[in-house]
Amino acid sequence: MPTDLEKYLKDRRKELDIESPDDQLIWEGIRQGLQGSRSTSGKRRLWIRIRNMAAVIIIVVSVGYMIVDIIGDRKSTVKITLSDIDQDLGAREQEYRKLVNNKEQEVSSFNNTDNMIITELFEEIQKLDTIYDATLKDLNELGYNEQAIQTIFDTYEKKIYLLELIILENNKIKNYETEDNLFL
User: Where are the alpha helices (DSSP H) in 77-145?
Assistant: First the structure.
């Protein structure tokens, strides 16, 4: 039961067994291959050029997009203040800031960090500062918004109130200490 391959090899054994290669045939095949590649190399070069131009265009568009995105981010970081919206709002905010700064200076002279009530009041002030920062961010992103402006002034008022509570608590502690010394 010889297979087709075995039959083929037996029939063509003499043609397949060659001790030396046919150099003439090999060189003729190489020559034909080079001539064929020259005719297709023009088409191939054209496709390579088109591919390279497309790559350059993609790179230029990408870099341009990134530059516009970066410049756009810089422009969006310009912050809107209440004085930009209205002079009266800006003046009102300045008054609140002065009052808050005066109260903070008065509170900073105290050294009662071990009092739980004062510690909790400071935590509430930090929460108000977080709300204030978020509201300013919203105001910058959304533009003029009456609720945002009202929230800003509300946080100022609450902060002043909390600072006054800290001052009262500290005065209460001082008064208690002096009264305690009087009774000894």
Answer: 82-85, 87-108, 116-142
Cβ neighbours for 118, distance < 8 A, ≥ 6 positions apart: 110, 112, 166, 169, 170
Structural domain count, the chain: 2
66/87 same-domain check: no
Q: Residues 69, 111: one domain?
A: no
Answering whether pTM is above 0.70, one says no
71 with 86, same domain: the answer is no
Residue 129: closest CA among 155, 149, 153? 155
Per residue of the chain (184 residues), give pLDDT as tens: 568 888 887 887 777 766 676 778 788 888 887 776 665 667 778 888 999 999 999 999 999 988 888 887 655 555 677 777 778 888 888 898 899 999 888 888 776 667 788 888 889 989 999 998 888 888 887 777 888 889 889 999 999 998 898 888 888 877 765 555 545 4
Q: Are residues 8 and 68 in the same domain?
A: yes
